[in-house]
Protein backbone atom coordinates (compact mmCIF):
# COMPACT_ATOMS: atom_id res chain seq x y z
CA UNK A 1 0.00 0.00 0.00
CA UNK A 2 2.84 2.37 0.85
CA UNK A 3 4.58 1.63 -2.48
CA UNK A 4 1.30 2.24 -4.32
CA UNK A 5 0.93 5.63 -2.57
CA UNK A 6 4.46 6.65 -3.55
CA UNK A 7 3.84 5.59 -7.15
CA UNK A 8 0.59 7.57 -7.26
CA UNK A 9 2.36 10.66 -5.88
CA UNK A 10 5.09 10.32 -8.53
CA UNK A 11 2.44 10.06 -11.26
CA UNK A 12 0.65 13.13 -9.87
CA UNK A 13 3.91 15.17 -9.84
CA UNK A 14 4.78 14.10 -13.38
CA UNK A 15 1.28 14.65 -14.72
CA UNK A 16 1.07 18.11 -13.15
CA UNK A 17 4.38 19.15 -14.70
CA UNK A 18 3.28 17.92 -18.13
CA UNK A 19 -0.08 19.72 -17.89
CA UNK A 20 1.77 22.97 -17.20
CA UNK A 21 4.34 22.35 -19.94
CA UNK A 22 7.37 22.14 -17.63
CA UNK A 23 8.88 19.58 -20.03
CA UNK A 24 9.08 22.38 -22.64
CA UNK A 25 11.79 24.05 -20.53
CA UNK A 26 14.20 21.23 -21.47
CA UNK A 27 15.61 21.32 -25.06
CA UNK A 28 14.37 18.28 -26.99
CA UNK A 29 17.88 17.39 -28.19
CA UNK A 30 18.96 16.79 -24.61
CA UNK A 31 16.22 14.21 -23.91
CA UNK A 32 17.55 10.62 -23.79
CA UNK A 33 15.59 8.09 -25.88
CA UNK A 34 13.93 6.42 -22.89
CA UNK A 35 12.49 9.73 -21.63
CA UNK A 36 11.23 10.55 -25.14
CA UNK A 37 9.52 7.15 -25.23
CA UNK A 38 8.01 7.71 -21.78
CA UNK A 39 6.75 11.16 -22.80
CA UNK A 40 5.19 9.75 -25.99
CA UNK A 41 3.24 7.15 -24.01
CA UNK A 42 1.65 9.93 -21.90
CA UNK A 43 0.11 11.54 -24.98
CA UNK A 44 -3.07 12.66 -23.17
CA UNK A 45 -1.09 14.94 -20.81
CA UNK A 46 -0.49 18.08 -22.83
CA UNK A 47 0.41 21.68 -21.98
CA UNK A 48 -2.86 23.37 -21.03
CA UNK A 49 -1.32 26.86 -20.74
CA UNK A 50 0.59 27.43 -24.01
CA UNK A 51 0.14 31.21 -23.88
CA UNK A 52 1.68 31.64 -20.42
CA UNK A 53 5.38 32.41 -19.98
CA UNK A 54 7.79 29.70 -18.84
CA UNK A 55 8.19 31.35 -15.44
CA UNK A 56 4.42 31.67 -14.90
CA UNK A 57 3.83 28.01 -15.84
CA UNK A 58 6.50 26.95 -13.33
CA UNK A 59 4.84 29.02 -10.62
CA UNK A 60 1.38 27.60 -11.36
CA UNK A 61 2.75 24.04 -11.37
CA UNK A 62 4.29 24.53 -7.92
CA UNK A 63 1.01 25.92 -6.60
CA UNK A 64 -0.82 22.86 -7.94
CA UNK A 65 1.72 20.46 -6.38
CA UNK A 66 1.02 21.69 -2.88
CA UNK A 67 2.72 23.16 0.20
CA UNK A 68 6.10 21.43 -0.04
CA UNK A 69 6.68 22.64 -3.60
CA UNK A 70 5.27 26.08 -2.75
CA UNK A 71 7.84 26.54 0.02
CA UNK A 72 10.58 25.35 -2.36
CA UNK A 73 9.47 27.98 -4.87
CA UNK A 74 9.46 30.67 -2.18
CA UNK A 75 13.02 29.75 -1.25
CA UNK A 76 14.11 29.74 -4.90
CA UNK A 77 12.61 33.22 -5.40
CA UNK A 78 15.35 34.59 -3.13
CA UNK A 79 18.15 32.78 -5.01
CA UNK A 80 18.72 35.34 -7.75
CA UNK A 81 22.26 34.05 -7.99
CA UNK A 82 20.73 30.92 -9.56
CA UNK A 83 17.55 32.06 -11.34
CA UNK A 84 16.90 34.76 -13.91
CA UNK A 85 14.91 37.78 -12.71
CA UNK A 86 11.69 36.77 -14.47
CA UNK A 87 11.66 33.39 -12.68
CA UNK A 88 12.59 34.95 -9.32
CA UNK A 89 9.84 37.59 -9.58
CA UNK A 90 7.21 35.05 -10.60
CA UNK A 91 8.09 32.59 -7.83
CA UNK A 92 7.96 35.44 -5.30
CA UNK A 93 4.18 35.54 -5.96
CA UNK A 94 3.74 32.06 -4.46
CA UNK A 95 1.53 32.09 -1.39
CA UNK A 96 0.60 29.36 1.08
CA UNK A 97 -3.03 28.87 0.08
CA UNK A 98 -3.67 25.82 2.23
CA UNK A 99 -7.08 24.85 3.54
CA UNK A 100 -7.25 24.73 7.35
CA UNK A 101 -7.73 21.43 9.10
CA UNK A 102 -10.50 21.13 11.74
CA UNK A 103 -9.96 23.06 14.95
CA UNK A 104 -11.11 20.07 17.00
CA UNK A 105 -8.30 18.03 15.47
CA UNK A 106 -5.83 20.84 16.25
CA UNK A 107 -7.04 20.84 19.86
CA UNK A 108 -6.56 17.09 20.07
CA UNK A 109 -2.97 17.38 18.75
CA UNK A 110 -2.20 20.11 21.30
CA UNK A 111 -3.59 18.06 24.17
CA UNK A 112 -1.51 15.07 23.08
CA UNK A 113 1.59 17.27 23.11
CA UNK A 114 0.83 18.73 26.55
CA UNK A 115 -0.42 15.49 28.09
CA UNK A 116 -3.73 16.83 29.28
CA UNK A 117 -6.81 18.91 28.37
CA UNK A 118 -6.17 22.48 27.23
CA UNK A 119 -8.45 23.76 30.00
CA UNK A 120 -5.65 22.95 32.48
CA UNK A 121 -3.60 25.82 31.04
CA UNK A 122 -5.85 27.94 28.82
CA UNK A 123 -9.21 29.64 28.68
CA UNK A 124 -11.17 30.80 25.64
CA UNK A 125 -9.47 28.46 23.15
CA UNK A 126 -10.73 29.39 19.68
CA UNK A 127 -11.20 26.40 17.38
CA UNK A 128 -11.29 28.74 14.35
CA UNK A 129 -7.68 29.19 13.18
CA UNK A 130 -6.13 32.65 13.29
CA UNK A 131 -3.73 31.72 10.48
CA UNK A 132 -3.05 28.70 8.31
CA UNK A 133 0.19 27.77 6.57
CA UNK A 134 1.61 24.78 4.77
CA UNK A 135 3.34 23.30 7.83
CA UNK A 136 1.47 24.65 10.85
CA UNK A 137 -1.79 26.20 11.98
CA UNK A 138 -2.27 28.94 14.59
CA UNK A 139 -5.08 29.31 17.14
CA UNK A 140 -5.70 31.83 19.91
CA UNK A 141 -6.38 31.33 23.61
CA UNK A 142 -5.91 33.00 26.98
CA UNK A 143 -3.26 31.74 29.36
CA UNK A 144 -4.78 31.32 32.79
CA UNK A 145 -2.21 33.53 34.54
CA UNK A 146 1.37 34.70 34.42
CA UNK A 147 3.79 35.57 37.24
CA UNK A 148 1.80 38.71 38.07
CA UNK A 149 -1.48 36.78 38.15
CA UNK A 150 -2.76 38.50 34.99
CA UNK A 151 -4.33 36.55 32.09
CA UNK A 152 -2.26 36.72 28.93
CA UNK A 153 -3.50 36.46 25.36
CA UNK A 154 -1.45 33.82 23.53
CA UNK A 155 -1.27 32.02 20.21
CA UNK A 156 -0.78 28.27 19.90
CA UNK A 157 1.01 27.01 16.81
CA UNK A 158 0.65 23.31 16.02
CA UNK A 159 2.19 21.19 13.27
CA UNK A 160 -0.28 19.90 10.68
CA UNK A 161 -1.12 16.18 11.04
CA UNK A 162 0.88 13.76 8.87
CA UNK A 163 2.75 16.63 7.18
CA UNK A 164 6.12 15.07 7.94
CA UNK A 165 5.29 11.94 5.90
CA UNK A 166 4.22 14.08 2.95
CA UNK A 167 7.33 16.21 3.19
CA UNK A 168 9.68 13.22 3.29
CA UNK A 169 7.91 11.59 0.34
CA UNK A 170 8.06 14.78 -1.74
CA UNK A 171 11.70 15.35 -0.83
CA UNK A 172 12.51 11.87 -2.13
CA UNK A 173 11.01 12.67 -5.54
CA UNK A 174 12.50 16.18 -5.53
CA UNK A 175 15.97 14.68 -5.20
CA UNK A 176 15.21 12.39 -8.18
CA UNK A 177 13.99 15.36 -10.25
CA UNK A 178 17.06 17.37 -9.25
CA UNK A 179 19.26 14.67 -10.75
CA UNK A 180 17.31 14.89 -14.03
CA UNK A 181 17.55 18.70 -14.07
CA UNK A 182 21.32 18.54 -13.60
CA UNK A 183 21.54 16.05 -16.46
CA UNK A 184 19.11 17.55 -18.97
CA UNK A 185 19.20 21.35 -18.62
CA UNK A 186 22.00 23.16 -20.51
CA UNK A 187 23.00 25.09 -17.38
CA UNK A 188 22.15 22.26 -14.97
CA UNK A 189 25.59 22.37 -13.35
CA UNK A 190 25.37 26.11 -12.70
CA UNK A 191 21.94 25.73 -11.06
CA UNK A 192 23.32 23.02 -8.74
CA UNK A 193 19.85 21.47 -8.19
CA UNK A 194 21.08 18.69 -5.90
CA UNK A 195 22.73 21.19 -3.56
CA UNK A 196 19.57 23.34 -3.58
CA UNK A 197 17.38 20.38 -2.58
CA UNK A 198 19.83 19.39 0.18
CA UNK A 199 19.68 22.95 1.53
CA UNK A 200 15.87 22.92 1.28
CA UNK A 201 15.64 19.55 3.05
CA UNK A 202 17.53 20.90 6.06
CA UNK A 203 15.48 24.10 6.16
CA UNK A 204 12.04 22.50 5.94
CA UNK A 205 12.84 19.68 8.39
CA UNK A 206 14.08 22.28 10.88
CA UNK A 207 10.71 24.05 10.57
CA UNK A 208 8.98 20.86 11.70
CA UNK A 209 10.64 21.19 15.13
CA UNK A 210 8.80 23.96 16.97
CA UNK A 211 11.03 23.57 20.03
CA UNK A 212 13.87 24.82 17.82
CA UNK A 213 11.78 27.82 16.80
CA UNK A 214 11.01 28.51 20.45
CA UNK A 215 14.72 28.48 21.35
CA UNK A 216 15.52 30.82 18.44
CA UNK A 217 12.80 33.27 19.50
CA UNK A 218 14.04 33.28 23.10
CA UNK A 219 17.59 34.03 21.93
CA UNK A 220 16.48 36.83 19.60
CA UNK A 221 14.25 38.35 22.29
CA UNK A 222 17.16 38.33 24.76
CA UNK A 223 19.43 40.02 22.20
CA UNK A 224 16.94 42.90 21.79
CA UNK A 225 15.73 43.12 25.39
CA UNK A 226 14.75 46.75 26.06
CA UNK A 227 15.37 47.77 22.45
CA UNK A 228 13.27 50.47 20.78
CA UNK A 229 14.01 48.95 17.33
CA UNK A 230 12.76 45.34 17.45
CA UNK A 231 10.32 43.50 19.70
CA UNK A 232 10.13 39.69 19.78
CA UNK A 233 7.05 38.22 21.51
CA UNK A 234 7.54 36.23 24.69
CA UNK A 235 7.68 32.46 24.33
CA UNK A 236 6.25 30.27 27.10
CA UNK A 237 8.94 27.62 26.91
CA UNK A 238 7.46 25.45 29.67
CA UNK A 239 4.46 24.81 27.38
CA UNK A 240 6.39 24.35 24.14
CA UNK A 241 6.92 20.96 22.56
CA UNK A 242 8.29 19.63 19.27
CA UNK A 243 4.77 19.83 17.80
CA UNK A 244 3.53 22.87 19.75
CA UNK A 245 4.62 26.49 20.26
CA UNK A 246 2.95 28.83 22.76
CA UNK A 247 3.76 32.52 22.35
CA UNK A 248 2.47 35.91 23.42
CA UNK A 249 -0.12 37.31 21.03
CA UNK A 250 0.89 40.58 19.41
CA UNK A 251 -1.23 43.30 17.82
CA UNK A 252 0.41 45.27 15.07
CA UNK A 253 0.13 46.43 11.48
CA UNK A 254 1.57 44.10 8.81
CA UNK A 255 4.66 45.78 7.40
CA UNK A 256 3.38 45.27 3.86
CA UNK A 257 0.14 47.19 4.54
CA UNK A 258 1.37 50.61 3.42
CA UNK A 259 -2.06 52.24 3.57
CA UNK A 260 -2.62 51.19 7.19
CA UNK A 261 0.86 52.36 8.19
CA UNK A 262 0.34 55.76 6.59
CA UNK A 263 -3.12 56.05 8.14
CA UNK A 264 -1.52 55.45 11.54
CA UNK A 265 0.89 58.34 10.92
CA UNK A 266 3.99 56.14 10.72
CA UNK A 267 7.32 57.81 9.95
CA UNK A 268 8.08 55.71 6.86
CA UNK A 269 11.65 56.95 6.44
CA UNK A 270 12.50 56.09 10.03
CA UNK A 271 10.74 52.73 9.73
CA UNK A 272 12.77 51.79 6.62
CA UNK A 273 16.07 52.90 8.18
CA UNK A 274 15.27 51.04 11.38
CA UNK A 275 14.81 47.82 9.42
CA UNK A 276 18.33 48.20 8.00
CA UNK A 277 19.72 48.92 11.47
CA UNK A 278 17.96 45.87 12.93
CA UNK A 279 19.43 43.64 10.23
CA UNK A 280 23.01 44.84 10.64
CA UNK A 281 22.72 44.74 14.43
CA UNK A 282 21.67 41.09 14.28
CA UNK A 283 24.47 40.20 11.87
CA UNK A 284 27.45 42.17 13.20
CA UNK A 285 26.66 42.63 16.89
CA UNK A 286 24.93 39.35 17.71
CA UNK A 287 26.09 36.97 14.94
CA UNK A 288 22.52 35.62 15.09
CA UNK A 289 19.93 36.86 12.61
CA UNK A 290 16.33 36.13 11.71
CA UNK A 291 16.69 34.60 8.24
CA UNK A 292 13.02 34.62 7.22
CA UNK A 293 12.10 38.30 7.48
CA UNK A 294 9.55 38.39 4.68
CA UNK A 295 6.51 40.71 5.03
CA UNK A 296 4.34 37.95 6.51
CA UNK A 297 6.64 37.67 9.53
CA UNK A 298 7.08 41.39 10.29
CA UNK A 299 4.61 43.73 11.98
CA UNK A 300 4.84 47.34 13.17
CA UNK A 301 3.59 48.42 16.58
CA UNK A 302 0.69 50.87 16.49
CA UNK A 303 2.07 52.86 19.40
CA UNK A 304 4.55 55.72 18.82
CA UNK A 305 4.25 55.86 15.01
CA UNK A 306 6.77 58.71 14.92
CA UNK A 307 9.39 56.29 16.31
CA UNK A 308 8.13 52.95 14.93
CA UNK A 309 8.95 49.60 16.49
CA UNK A 310 9.42 46.44 14.40
CA UNK A 311 7.85 43.19 15.67
CA UNK A 312 9.33 39.91 14.46
CA UNK A 313 7.66 36.51 14.61
CA UNK A 314 8.27 33.01 13.16
CA UNK A 315 11.91 32.42 14.05
CA UNK A 316 12.10 28.92 12.58
CA UNK A 317 14.97 29.86 10.27
CA UNK A 318 17.97 31.73 11.69
CA UNK A 319 21.51 32.28 10.47
CA UNK A 320 24.81 32.63 12.29
CA UNK A 321 28.20 34.03 11.29
CA UNK A 322 31.55 33.44 12.95
CA UNK A 323 33.95 36.29 13.68
CA UNK A 324 36.02 35.71 10.55
CA UNK A 325 32.96 35.69 8.27
CA UNK A 326 31.71 38.95 9.81
CA UNK A 327 35.05 40.64 9.39
CA UNK A 328 35.50 39.54 5.78
CA UNK A 329 31.91 40.46 4.94
CA UNK A 330 32.23 43.97 6.42
CA UNK A 331 35.57 44.52 4.69
CA UNK A 332 34.10 43.28 1.40
CA UNK A 333 31.25 45.78 1.58
CA UNK A 334 33.58 48.66 2.44
CA UNK A 335 36.11 47.69 -0.23
CA UNK A 336 33.40 47.31 -2.86
CA UNK A 337 31.85 50.70 -2.21
CA UNK A 338 35.34 52.22 -2.24
CA UNK A 339 35.89 50.43 -5.59
CA UNK A 340 38.92 48.63 -4.22
CA UNK A 341 38.46 45.45 -6.26
CA UNK A 342 41.98 44.23 -5.46
CA UNK A 343 41.02 44.21 -1.79
CA UNK A 344 37.79 42.33 -2.58
CA UNK A 345 39.72 39.64 -4.47
CA UNK A 346 42.33 39.28 -1.71
CA UNK A 347 39.61 39.02 0.95
CA UNK A 348 37.93 36.16 -0.88
CA UNK A 349 41.23 34.28 -1.00
CA UNK A 350 42.22 35.09 2.60
CA UNK A 351 38.83 33.97 3.91
CA UNK A 352 39.13 30.58 2.21
CA UNK A 353 35.98 31.21 0.15
CA UNK A 354 38.03 30.59 -3.01
CA UNK A 355 41.09 28.31 -3.34
CA UNK A 356 44.48 29.69 -2.27
CA UNK A 357 45.94 29.03 -5.73
CA UNK A 358 43.46 31.47 -7.32
CA UNK A 359 45.09 34.04 -9.61
CA UNK A 360 44.31 37.25 -7.68
CA UNK A 361 45.02 39.48 -10.70
CA UNK A 362 42.59 37.58 -12.89
CA UNK A 363 40.03 37.47 -10.08
CA UNK A 364 40.32 41.25 -9.60
CA UNK A 365 39.69 41.86 -13.30
CA UNK A 366 36.61 39.60 -13.23
CA UNK A 367 35.15 41.41 -10.21
CA UNK A 368 35.77 44.82 -11.79
CA UNK A 369 34.15 43.72 -15.05
CA UNK A 370 30.97 42.56 -13.31
CA UNK A 371 30.67 45.16 -10.54
CA UNK A 372 31.92 48.42 -12.01
CA UNK A 373 28.77 49.00 -14.13
CA UNK A 374 26.75 49.05 -10.90
CA UNK A 375 28.31 52.40 -10.05
CA UNK A 376 26.66 54.00 -13.06
CA UNK A 377 23.68 54.37 -10.72
CA UNK A 378 23.47 56.71 -7.72
CA UNK A 379 24.43 55.05 -4.45
CA UNK A 380 20.84 55.34 -3.25
CA UNK A 381 19.76 53.01 -6.08
CA UNK A 382 22.46 50.37 -5.59
CA UNK A 383 21.16 47.09 -4.25
CA UNK A 384 23.18 45.50 -1.45
CA UNK A 385 21.59 42.16 -2.24
CA UNK A 386 22.61 42.35 -5.89
CA UNK A 387 26.11 43.38 -4.87
CA UNK A 388 26.39 40.10 -2.97
CA UNK A 389 24.84 38.17 -5.87
CA UNK A 390 27.35 39.64 -8.33
CA UNK A 391 30.28 38.98 -6.02
CA UNK A 392 29.26 35.38 -5.32
CA UNK A 393 28.47 34.63 -8.98
CA UNK A 394 31.90 35.92 -10.01
CA UNK A 395 33.61 34.00 -7.22
CA UNK A 396 31.86 30.78 -8.28
CA UNK A 397 33.67 30.96 -11.61
CA UNK A 398 36.84 30.68 -9.53
CA UNK A 399 35.58 27.58 -7.66
CA UNK A 400 34.09 29.34 -4.67
CA UNK A 401 32.41 26.74 -2.46
CA UNK A 402 28.80 27.27 -1.41
CA UNK A 403 28.67 29.02 1.97
CA UNK A 404 25.27 28.20 3.56
CA UNK A 405 25.53 31.02 6.07
CA UNK A 406 26.14 33.53 3.27
CA UNK A 407 23.19 32.21 1.26
CA UNK A 408 20.90 32.88 4.24
CA UNK A 409 22.45 36.30 4.69
CA UNK A 410 21.92 37.17 1.02
CA UNK A 411 18.29 36.03 1.19
CA UNK A 412 17.60 38.08 4.34
CA UNK A 413 19.32 41.14 2.91
CA UNK A 414 17.12 40.97 -0.20
CA UNK A 415 14.03 40.79 2.05
CA UNK A 416 15.10 43.79 4.15
CA UNK A 417 16.16 45.82 1.15
CA UNK A 418 12.90 45.13 -0.67
CA UNK A 419 10.87 46.02 2.41
CA UNK A 420 12.88 49.19 3.06
CA UNK A 421 12.43 50.56 -0.45
CA UNK A 422 8.78 49.55 -0.50
CA UNK A 423 8.26 51.60 2.65
CA UNK A 424 10.48 54.50 1.58
CA UNK A 425 11.61 54.41 -2.08
CA UNK A 426 14.30 57.05 -1.49
CA UNK A 427 16.03 54.91 1.13
CA UNK A 428 19.83 55.14 0.75
CA UNK A 429 20.80 51.75 2.09
CA UNK A 430 24.51 52.46 1.79
CA UNK A 431 24.26 55.76 3.66
CA UNK A 432 22.42 53.97 6.47
CA UNK A 433 24.76 50.96 6.64
CA UNK A 434 28.20 52.53 6.04
CA UNK A 435 28.60 54.20 9.48
CA UNK A 436 27.49 50.96 11.11
CA UNK A 437 30.09 48.93 9.19
CA UNK A 438 32.88 51.45 9.80
CA UNK A 439 32.17 51.63 13.54
CA UNK A 440 32.09 47.84 13.74
CA UNK A 441 35.44 47.57 11.93
CA UNK A 442 37.00 50.12 14.28
CA UNK A 443 35.75 48.16 17.28
CA UNK A 444 37.15 44.94 15.85
CA UNK A 445 40.60 46.23 14.78
CA UNK A 446 41.34 49.22 17.01
CA UNK A 447 42.42 49.78 20.59
CA UNK A 448 38.89 48.96 21.79
CA UNK A 449 39.15 45.52 20.19
CA UNK A 450 42.51 44.85 21.88
CA UNK A 451 41.14 45.94 25.25
CA UNK A 452 38.02 43.80 24.83
CA UNK A 453 40.03 40.72 23.86
CA UNK A 454 42.30 41.20 26.86
CA UNK A 455 39.30 41.46 29.17
CA UNK A 456 37.67 38.41 27.55
CA UNK A 457 40.83 36.32 28.03
CA UNK A 458 41.60 37.62 31.52
CA UNK A 459 39.53 34.96 33.38
CA UNK A 460 41.26 32.19 31.40
CA UNK A 461 44.70 33.62 32.10
CA UNK A 462 43.77 34.09 35.77
CA UNK A 463 42.78 30.44 35.94
CA UNK A 464 46.03 29.25 34.36
CA UNK A 465 48.39 31.64 36.21
CA UNK A 466 48.69 29.51 39.42
CA UNK A 467 49.64 26.54 37.23
CA UNK A 468 52.43 28.46 35.48
CA UNK A 469 55.31 27.54 37.93
CA UNK A 470 54.41 23.83 37.72
CA UNK A 471 54.21 23.97 33.94
CA UNK A 472 57.55 25.78 33.74
CA UNK A 473 59.24 23.27 36.10
CA UNK A 474 57.84 20.28 34.20
CA UNK A 475 59.00 21.68 30.87
CA UNK A 476 62.50 22.36 32.18
CA UNK A 477 62.68 18.84 33.66
CA UNK A 478 61.51 17.41 30.38
CA UNK A 479 64.13 19.47 28.53
CA UNK A 480 66.88 18.05 30.77
CA UNK A 481 65.80 14.55 29.81
CA UNK A 482 65.76 15.40 26.13
CA UNK A 483 69.17 17.18 25.97
CA UNK A 484 71.33 13.98 26.30
CA UNK A 485 69.29 12.31 23.59
CA UNK A 486 69.68 15.33 21.32
CA UNK A 487 73.44 15.43 21.98
CA UNK A 488 73.77 11.74 21.13
CA UNK A 489 71.78 12.16 17.92
CA UNK A 490 73.86 15.23 17.00
CA UNK A 491 77.11 13.31 17.52
CA UNK A 492 75.85 10.43 15.38
CA UNK A 493 74.82 12.87 12.66
CA UNK A 494 78.23 14.60 12.62
CA UNK A 495 80.04 11.25 12.63
CA UNK A 496 78.03 10.05 9.64
CA UNK A 497 78.47 13.38 7.88
CA UNK A 498 82.24 13.16 8.29
CA UNK A 499 82.27 9.64 6.85
CA UNK A 500 80.21 10.78 3.89
CA UNK A 501 82.55 13.71 3.29
CA UNK A 502 85.60 11.38 3.32
CA UNK A 503 83.79 9.04 0.96
CA UNK A 504 83.05 11.92 -1.42
CA UNK A 505 86.73 12.98 -1.27
CA UNK A 506 88.03 9.55 -2.27
CA UNK A 507 85.32 9.15 -4.90
CA UNK A 508 86.27 12.49 -6.44
CA UNK A 509 89.96 11.60 -6.40
CA UNK A 510 89.13 8.28 -8.05
CA UNK A 511 87.20 10.05 -10.81
CA UNK A 512 90.06 12.49 -11.48
CA UNK A 513 92.57 9.64 -11.61
CA UNK A 514 90.33 7.74 -14.03
CA UNK A 515 90.08 10.72 -16.36
CA UNK A 516 93.84 11.22 -16.20
CA UNK A 517 94.48 7.55 -16.98
CA UNK A 518 92.19 7.55 -20.02
CA UNK A 519 92.85 10.98 -21.45
CA UNK A 520 96.39 12.14 -20.63
CA UNK A 521 99.34 11.10 -22.92
CA UNK A 522 101.63 8.95 -20.78
CA UNK A 523 105.38 8.79 -21.70
CA UNK A 524 105.26 5.05 -21.77
CA UNK A 525 102.39 2.52 -21.91
CA UNK A 526 103.82 0.57 -18.96
CA UNK A 527 103.11 3.59 -16.75
CA UNK A 528 99.39 3.26 -17.29
CA UNK A 529 99.31 0.46 -14.73
CA UNK A 530 100.19 3.12 -12.17
CA UNK A 531 97.16 5.23 -13.14
CA UNK A 532 94.80 2.27 -12.81
CA UNK A 533 96.29 1.44 -9.44
CA UNK A 534 95.56 4.97 -8.23
CA UNK A 535 91.94 4.72 -9.50
CA UNK A 536 91.36 1.43 -7.70
CA UNK A 537 93.17 2.67 -4.58
CA UNK A 538 90.91 5.73 -4.35
CA UNK A 539 87.70 3.88 -5.20
CA UNK A 540 88.08 1.26 -2.43
CA UNK A 541 88.08 3.77 0.51
CA UNK A 542 85.23 5.72 -1.17
CA UNK A 543 83.15 2.52 -1.31
CA UNK A 544 84.12 1.66 2.28
CA UNK A 545 83.07 5.02 3.76
CA UNK A 546 79.81 5.09 1.78
CA UNK A 547 78.80 1.68 3.14
CA UNK A 548 79.30 2.58 6.83
TrEMBL record:
UniProt entry tagged with the keyword Cell membrane: yes
InterPro entries for this protein: ABC1_dom (IPR004147), Kinase-like_dom_sf (IPR011009), UbiB (IPR010232), UbiB_bact (IPR045308), UbiB_kinase (IPR050154)
E.C. number(s) listed in UniProt: 2.7.-.-
Subcellular location: Cell membrane
Pathway: Cofactor biosynthesis; ubiquinone biosynthesis [regulation]
Main location as per UniProt: membrane
Transmembrane region(s): 504-523, 529-546
Pfam family, one: ABC1
Keywords: ATP-binding, Cell inner membrane, Cell membrane, Kinase, Membrane, Nucleotide-binding, Transferase, Transmembrane, Transmembrane helix, Ubiquinone, Ubiquinone biosynthesis
Positions contributing to ATP binding: 130-138, 157
Active site: 292
Its biological purpose: Is probably a protein kinase regulator of UbiI activity which is involved in aerobic coenzyme Q (ubiquinone) biosynthesis.
NCBIfam families to which the protein is assigned, alphabetical: PRK04750.1, UbiB
Similarity field: Belongs to the ABC1 family. UbiB subfamily. Belongs to the protein kinase superfamily. ADCK protein kinase family.
Protein name, UniProt field: Probable protein kinase UbiB
Organism taxonomic ancestry: Bacteria, Pseudomonadati, Pseudomonadota, Gammaproteobacteria, Alteromonadales
Originating gene: ubiB
Amino acid sequence: MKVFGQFFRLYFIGATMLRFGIDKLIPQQRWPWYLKLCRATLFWLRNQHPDASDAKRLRMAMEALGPVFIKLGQMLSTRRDLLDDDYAKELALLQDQVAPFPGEQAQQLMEQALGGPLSNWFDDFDTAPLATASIAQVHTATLKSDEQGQPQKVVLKVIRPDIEKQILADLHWMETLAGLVALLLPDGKRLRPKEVIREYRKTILDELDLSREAANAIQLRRNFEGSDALYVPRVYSELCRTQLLVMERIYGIPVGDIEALEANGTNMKRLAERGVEVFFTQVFRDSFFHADMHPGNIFVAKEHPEDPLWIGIDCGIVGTLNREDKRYLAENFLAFFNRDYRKVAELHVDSGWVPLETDVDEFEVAIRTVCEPIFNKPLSEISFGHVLINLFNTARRFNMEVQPQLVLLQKTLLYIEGLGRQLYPQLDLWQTAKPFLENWMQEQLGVKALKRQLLENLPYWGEKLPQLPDLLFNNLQHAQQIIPTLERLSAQYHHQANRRQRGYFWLGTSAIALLATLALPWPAEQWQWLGWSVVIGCWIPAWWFSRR
